[in-house]
Amino acid sequence: MDTILSPRTTTGSTAPLRTGAEYLRAIADDGRRVYVDGELVRDVTRHPAFREGARSIARLYDMAADPANRERLTYASPADGAPVLRAYQIPRTHADIRAKRLAAEAWAEATFGLMGRTPDHVAGFFAGYAAKPSVFAAGGQQFADNVVRFYEKLRDNHLYASYAIVPPQIDRSKPAHQQSDPSLYAGVVREKDGGIVVRGAQQLATGGVFSDYLYLSCIHPLQPGDENYAIGVAIPMNAPGLKLLSRRGFAAKAENAFDYPLTSRFDETDSLVVLDDVFVPWEDVFIYRNTQICFDQWWKTPSHVYGNLQAQARYATKLRFLLGLAKRMNEATGHDKNPPVMVQMGELASLATIVDSMVQAQEVMAKVEDDGVLWPSRNTLYSVMALQSEINPRMIDIVREITGAGMITLPSSERDFENPEIAADLDRFLGTPKQAARDKVALMKLAWDFIGTEFGNRHQQYEKFYGGASFLVKMNVFRNYDFDRATGLVDAALSLPPLAAE
Ligand SMILES: Cc1cc2nc3c(=O)[nH]c(=O)nc-3n(C[C@H](O)[C@H](O)[C@H](O)COP(=O)(O)OP(=O)(O)OC[C@H]3O[C@@H](n4cnc5c(N)ncnc54)[C@H](O)[C@@H]3O)c2cc1C
């Protein structure tokens, strides 16, 4: 199908909560152009690289549509009181922020923290934009109206947006407009009746192949001359001219769910976005040729903190899963009560607890900034994000250390258990007094899929970079830390009264 089929939407009233089946129908064979292994994928819900990832997202929609989860995963739309995803809630009280975190945790638990860009991530960014439309109005009131209308459309139709907000790594030594070809980085190339035309590429749309909409913008600092790249626009994933060039689809290479229990189910995929003269109607343009607003959207609205509150709740959940894996592996190897291993487990638990506590501190230290909207604590958020690129590899390394060869001394695949010539050997030498060989192998394969497979290693890169390079996050902490209070202490120490004897 080559026509644009926008996801089924309602205007003016809230659609019934979307089920998983409705979500899958909406993205199936809708004309989106996804490329993997040299092939154009017509239907991501059927292709082996994407099918199970799409079903994992569908399960999240089913959870939210289940009346048993109404309070945890939804809230009443301000439009008409009907339930909508809590990720779209604009928090006004501490209880609201807590409720948003609990919703994010519920979905993160369902994916073991292994899918970062689920529909609740970019939802947080749009909630942040709608909380502070005045930032967009600086370019003209119509842009503020557009972003609020689009937010309401996402919210009231339970839609899934992904984003690509980083220019491709072509030549980082030059600004956007001085690249060898001015249409390498995604930007506007001309206006056309009723809208604008966008051309170029942007990285890296995690979950893009599964989403309804792409938000295309730029978080990298732009310079004078870069105005054409200073845009913020929403594009349906099946818009003509939009192509998603997926990285290797790990799930397609995962032979079965026993050997690759995580790869086979939770590969959210990452895609380079290519725009071949994509037309965007004015109503889906929120920022137009304005470098200041392009910058301010991240830092002068609560978008970045709402989106990353979800990201951190997801990460804390993933670390809890890692702790569980390590504990079960120690039980399997007989090291669980070995004091040096207990010390290492204590270090792991400390690091996981720091992350978890920092997520909760974002709520506790949240403040109403203006417009009656609550912002999670930026300093707390950015501090834990800044240390993530050190904490994460440290934790993975400890788990590698305590496991020895446990994740490697494994049958080559599930099929080895079916060969009578070796099945008895596997049962005898891989089992433990408490655990049948097959159960122990399943556990170790689960851990290896988390840590050592291509899927596991991509996750380590993801945790390093999903919130931007760590030097940038540290700059955020620098900008937000209360240095006045710190230097005040130094000044007080320097002006202490003389000692009695002096
Ligand atoms: C798995 C994964 C998923 C992602 N998902 C998304 C997504 O969904 N949407 C999206 O928009 N983006 C996504 N990203 C992209 C991510 O936002 C970028 O990778 C990130 O912003 C870093 O940019 P870069 O990769 O271009 O690195 P660069 O900006 O090129 O930097 C690379 C390295 O160079 C060094 N460096 C560069 N400049 C400096 C400097 N001034 N000072 C000190 N050191 C410097 C640092 O070591 C830095 O880490 C994802 C990335 C990964 C790896």
From TrEMBL:
One Pfam family recorded for the sequence: HpaB
Protein keywords: FAD, Flavoprotein, Oxidoreductase
InterPro entries given in the database record: Acyl-CoA_Oxase/DH_mid-dom_sf, AcylCo_DH-like_C, AcylCoA_DH/oxidase_NM_dom_sf, HpaB/PvcC/4-BUDH, HpaB/PvcC/4-BUDH_C, HpaB/PvcC/4-BUDH_N
Keyword match S-adenosyl-L-methionine: no
Domain annotation HpaB/PvcC/4-BUDH C-terminal: ranges: 296-494
Residue ranges occupied by any HpaB/PvcC/4-BUDH N-terminal domain in the UniProt entry: 19-287
Protein name, entry field: 4-hydroxyphenylacetate 3-hydroxylase
